[in-house]
Every structure is written in C-alpha cells, then in structure tokens.
What does this fold into?
Amino acid sequence: MELIVSSAIGFMTAAAVYLILQKRTFPIVVGLTLLSYAVNIFLFSSGRLVVNQPPIITGAESYTDPLPQALVLTAIVISFGMTALIVVLAIRGFLETATDTADLPEDEWDDETETRS
Amino acid sequence: MTDAPLATSWIIAPTILPAITAAVLILLRQRDISIQRFVSLSSTAALVVIAVFLYLVLDDGETDAYRLGAWPAPFGIALVLDRLSATMLVLTAGLALAVLLYAMAGWDRHGRHFHALFHFQLLGLNGAFLTGDIFNLFVFFEVMLIASYGLMLHGGGAKRLRAGFQYVAINLIASSLFLIAIGLIYGTVGTLNFADLAVKARAVAEGDQALLQTGVLLLLLVFALKAAFVPLHWWLPATYAAASAPVAALFAIMTKVGAYAIIRVFGTVFGDGAAPAALGAVAAPWVVPAALVTIAVGTIGLLGTRKLFNLAAFNTIASMGVLLVAVGQFSVDGLTAALYYLVHSTIAGAALFLIVDLIASRRTVKLDALVPGNPISQAAVIGALFFLVAIAVVGLPPLSGFIGKLLVLDATYEASKAWLIWATILVSSLMMTIAFARAGSTVFWKAEGQTTGPKWDTAAVTPIIVVACLVGASLMFAVFAGPAVRALYATAEQALDTQTYVRAVLGDRENVEPERPITTPNTMSDPSAPTISPGE
It folds into this structure.
C-alpha cells in the first residue's frame, strides 16, 4: 500500500508541476487541482497508513490517527474554494482580454495606464 | 473556563470583531455606502482600542495564552499573546484605520464588498499574529489570502484580472507547499502546537530528522514567498502595482506577515539552541544571502522602473531585504533592529503607495508613468509630502528610516561578512536616493501644460491628511526612538525565549521534557505524555 500511495503522490505532483509550467490558464488550473489532490493524500499519509482501525482511542492496541483526517478535510475545503475562484478569474480574464495566456503583455500594460479610465 | 481571567479572554477579540463586522457588512451591502462606512470605520476604531488595550494591559512582560473552549494546550486550539503579537496587532490596526480613511474618500465605491473584504483581511492578519499552532497559521494565512484576492481585484479591469490570476496561482502553490511542510512536521514530531513542537522536536528519532528538516525548510520557502524574498519576489510588483492604492497600502503589512512567521517559527519555536536537530539553524544560512540579493533586486527595480506604482512596489521588496538581513541574525539585537524597521517600513511603504496614488489620480495624461506629465493641483503640499515619504523610505534623517537602517547596521556589525551587508545596505540607500530624487523632479518640476486635479475641498483634503498623519507617525517613531527601541528590545528577548513561551502555553507541568524519543506520531498513547488536568 505504501508503494501505491507514495507513487500516486509522486506522479500527481510531477504531472502538476509540468502543467503549472504551461503558458495557458487551463493547464495551470488543472495542474493546481492535481497538486492539491497530491497534497491531500500526502497529508493523509502523515498520520501513517493504517487499515481497519477506529479513529479513536478505545483501549485496543492500535488506532488510526484522526488528526490528519481533520487537517485533510480543512485542506480540501480551502483548495476546492480556491480552485473555483481561480477558474472564475481565468474565465473573466479570457473574456475581457480575448486571450488565455497567463502572462502580462508589456504593451497592453503601457497603453492602458496612459489613458484616463 | 472559570479559571481564565476575564482579561485573557480579550485575546480572541481581534479575530472575533472583524469576523462579525464583515458578516454585518455583507448584510448591509444593499444599503447606502455611508452606513457601510460608519460600521466599517467604528469597527476599525474599536480594533485600534482593543489592540492598544491588549498591548498595555496584557503586555506585562508575560506571555498569555487563551485556550479555546478551555481545552488543554496541545490538544485544543490556543491563541497566544506576547509582546511580538501585540506589537503586530497595534501596527495592523493603526495601518488599517489610516488605509480605511483614505479609501473612504472614494476608492471604496469602485466595487462592491470593499468593506466586508477589508475586515476579512483584518481577521486573517490578526489571527495569523495570535495563533499558537502551525495549522491555524495555515488557516489564517488562507483567510488573509482569500480576502486579499478579492481586495486585489477591487476596481476590476483586465489588467487586475491578469495580475490577479498570477497572484492566486502562485499563492495556491505556496499553500500546497505549506501543507506538505505541515504533513512532514506532523508525521515526524506528532504535534502542530508551537510550544509542543518546541519541546518534542528535540526528541525526534535520528532517522526522522532529515524529514523534519525538509519540512522546516519548506516552511521557510512558504514564508519567504509571502515576504517576497528573492527569487520568490516576482509576483509582488505585478500584484501591488495592479491593485488599487489603498489595497496596496494595506498589503504593506502582508509581506510583514511572512517576516513575522519567520521570527515566530525559526526564532521562538525552533530557535532554542538546545535542539539537537538545530532546526532554527537550518534556516540561517539562507536568510541573509537571500536578503542581500533582495535588497539588490529591489534597488535595481527602483532605478529601472518606468511606473510610479512600481516604484512603491520595488521599494517594498528592498525594504523587506533590509528587514530580513536583521531577522537573519537571529540575535536579540538583530531582532530589535528588525522589529523597528518592520514598523517603520510598514508605515512608510503604505504612505508611499498612497502618495503615488494622489499624484496619479490628479494627472490626466501619463497617469502613473514616470515621465513628465501635466502639473497637478495642490502640487506644493503633495510634493512636500512625497519628499518627506521619500526621505523616510530611503533612510535619511530625521525620519524613522534613518534610525531603522542605523539599528540594522549596528546589529550586523559583528556578523560574518559584515562588510558585504554594510556595503549592500549603504550603496542601495544611495541608489534609492537617486531613484526618488529623479522621480520627484520628473513628476513635480518638469510638468508642463494645464493644471488638473480636484480643488481644495473636503474630498481632496482627507487623503492628504491621512498621508500627512503617516509621515507624522514616522517622525514620532523617530523622535521617541529611545522608548520604542527599549520596548522592542524586550519584545525581541521574549520572542527568542522558547522556554517562557512553552511554559505559558503548556502550563507549569513537570514533565514538559519528554522522557524518551518519540518514534510514533501517536503521542496520545505515549505513557510519558502529561496527564490532563481540567483546571489547567
């Protein structure tokens, strides 16, 4: 199980890094999503990988650590909300500038500041 | 709960007040702007009073902890107030009041929800300064960032959207790294409470120490991104220059959150030399060299920029460099200088963004371009204020920048490579003087054509008075530098005193030191774990 979990985290992170380094907004958003999945699983595994144990101290010998599960829940909520926000930003940016690249074109920048809005 | 003195419960007030205010402001969104302004302003004023109250009353040199729901410290959530937190709270509240007064002159009409987002931002900032565990630091960072995304886009426009996308993307990556760091630390130490970490990190098993150090260095990376350390500073000029001026002025405190987190985590939590892993020491080799490059990049940016707002943005980078050189000493003297410079650069950096906005909003051509434009109204007053703000940020007497840089130079006198630090700071000050002298003469003396801008009336005067107050604050901070430095010296001593912090949060338990190395994260099953007394 350790091999599956760790290689899944590794592959997802590698794919995420590749996608985030792209020029257009859509691959970046997908990359950020993949990165947050990888982080969530990583966080989950920080409490050690245990199967079929209660997340509470019962007096039995072993239990699964409940804290990383709570942390992951918080992280999921935050990253989900942030992904929604960045999707909106990407779409609005595309609609207003008719291009979906993620950089700041220098010329456009200059023209805009020199005329009164 | 009964044992907690009433005064200690006030520690949570700086987070509750903005949260309630922001919620109320959302309900008031359809109402007249004057009602929103009244609620927003009175809440911010109350926040200033609470922050000063916390600084004066609770700050008796003790570290106070407020345990939410009276859960014992390592298990529940703790908010911790010491002099460092209290100083940051007062600074945040004061800056927020100034920025809000400036924004109320008209900027807050440019988009909906300005006031609500403003208070959510304050919630995140105050929470980050008060929190006593690393996961809540992450949560409050996120609250602060989410509000800042909204504020940054305030006013709208294609330029802000494009810069905003970059800003959100880079901070999402930083948040992911933060979570990985938290996972590594929790996986090896088994706790996330600052005080508990300081104790248990010493007993981490040999094989786990490399993992723990990786986690701690990742934390440094995240804080460095917030603090706009080179090479993680690229987001800052685009973001700050694209944001509306009051928002950029409020963001002057956001970079300081990164510096605060570095002081708290690497100074207070992992700073104790007793730790075998020497976790605080893993950061030290990186901070000063990166800070020196940060100064250089900021200064070159100042000299090279063709935009007034970029001038203010690159000044933020250069000032963070000076601040982090002092932080990087990890000594009481260095931290005193760092804190003085932190307060100064927050005030002066915010004033610079506002004064630049006063200039740009009065010009009808070449708005914020650093080229001769048309003369502006009230040029004499604004020119004089620009001159004073420039003196403050560059570090010339008589304003606080001079004393700040003097303290930094003094604190690094005996550091290794002191000559390099001194040369970088002094040469960069000269270059900054040239950059600001050139900017001032271009904008005010080479102007030609029709004078534009509002006449003398209330709407035009309020923002000018706000900037004048910030300059006055810088002057007062220089005049009362003696008492200020004494207070900050005590603050720095307390911030580096791990033992007192641990005792204040965990209580006077005899077995604060773990008796055997922790090999599993399941500390709750650890027989040596301290017993919990409900009355703690």
Observations:
- Residues 510-536 of chain B have pLDDT under 50 and may be disordered.
